[in-house]
Amino acid sequence: MQDQTSPGKLLEALRAQPPLVHCITNFVAMNIAANVLLATGASPAMVHAKEEAGEFAAIAGALTINIGTLSAGWMRGMRAAATAARDNHKPWVLDPVAHYATAFRREAVASLLELQPTVIRGNASEIIALAGGASRGQGVDSRDPVEQAEASARLLAETHRAVVAVTGATDFVTDGTRAVRIDGGSPWMPQVTALGCSLTCLVGAFAAINPDAPFEATIAALAVFAVAGEAAATEAEGPGSFSVRFLDSLARIDGAFLDRHARVRQA
Ligand SMILES: Nc1ncnc2c1ncn2[C@@H]1O[C@H](COP(=O)(O)OP(=O)(O)O)[C@@H](O)[C@H]1O
Ligand SMILES: Cc1ncsc1CCOP(=O)(O)O
Ligand SMILES: [Mg+2]
């Protein structure tokens, strides 16, 4: 019997019962992240107010928190939502955007890590710095190769008992014990702002339909981006047309295509 947690099977399960994904994400990413979730088959809701974020997290299938355009009020909403997700046993995903850049961001991420994210998704510079290493990140952009972040990812996974996904030319995912690398995507992807943020939301969508296997759920989300990104790049002429083709590819691929084209190998 085919593996029921293959990326293709999980994509089919997601489309059969579209999960409600509570996304607390930055102003830059809100629109494309919502469109990425809709194109893939999930149901996004961008809700960040401190007055309702906790209540909303309790009714969603999963929560994602991205600190890209952080403020003190948003921080209160983030903590309320992460507390509610934890208390209601809902998976939640942390995207520590450029946390190395300011004390404000570092304090925010330290505070959110105390609320036990299920998955941490970041680029190589963010993951290296989160594990205490010296990274070369510039603003929100990575300047480090994924290979140099793999040990940091393993350390973070063990320390925080979370799945850690490091994305880049070849993605790396670990739960501290198991680890895989995922090839694919396109060099145009880092040239389209907020695709990483959008991927964090898609990780949430897959975790919502597979809460007991966040490692496999994370792999599925990254495999969708890798296969859809590779397909879109064959039709694109630059980052602008890529971003349009990418949404079409997300909507077009099905489970069989995903399992046939995903390149996931044991690390
Ligand atoms: N050079 C590359 N080649 C192929 N895919 C890439 C490349 N850089 C990033 N990606 C893909 O782009 C998506 C966003 O990841 P990334 O750019 O690392 O995140 P962030 O936007 O948070 O920095 C991921 O699916 C990743 O695999
Ligand atoms: C440009 C920018 N500034 C604050 S958040 C953001 C988007 C970052 O998106 P990603 O992490 O996916 O590159
Ligand atoms: Mg990012």
Automatic annotation (TrEMBL):
- Signal peptide residue numbers: none
Identify the Gene3D superfamilies for this entry. Answer: 3.40.1190.20
Gene Ontology molecular function, alphabetical: ATP binding; hydroxyethylthiazole kinase activity; magnesium ion binding
User: What residues does substrate bind to?
Assistant: M46, A194
Pathway(s) this gene product operates in, as recorded in its UniProt entry = Cofactor biosynthesis; thiamine diphosphate biosynthesis; 4-methyl-5-(2-phosphoethyl)-thiazole from 5-(2-hydroxyethyl)-4-methylthiazole: step 1/1
Q: Does the keyword Lyase apply?
A: no
- Which cofactor is essential here? Mg(2+)
Give the InterPro entries listed for this entry: Hyethyz_kinase, Ribokinase-like
- GO biological process terms, semicolon-separated: thiamine biosynthetic process; thiamine diphosphate biosynthetic process
The reaction(s) catalysed by this protein are: 5-(2-hydroxyethyl)-4-methylthiazole + ATP = 4-methyl-5-(2-phosphooxyethyl)-thiazole + ADP + H(+)
Q: CDD domains from the xrefs?
A: THZ_kinase (cd01170)
- Keyword terms: ATP-binding, Kinase, Magnesium, Metal-binding, Nucleotide-binding, Plasmid, Thiamine biosynthesis, Transferase
Q: What is its EC number?
A: 2.7.1.50
Q: Does the keyword Metal-binding apply?
A: yes
Report residues binding ATP: R121, T167
Q: Which branch of life, at top level?
A: Bacteria
Q: What does this protein do?
A: Catalyzes the phosphorylation of the hydroxyl group of 4-methyl-5-beta-hydroxyethylthiazole (THZ).
For this chain, the family text in UniProt reads: Belongs to the Thz kinase family.
Q: Please state what the protein is called.
A: Hydroxyethylthiazole kinase
Q: Which organism is it from?
A: Rhizobium grahamii
Provide the gene name from the record: thiM
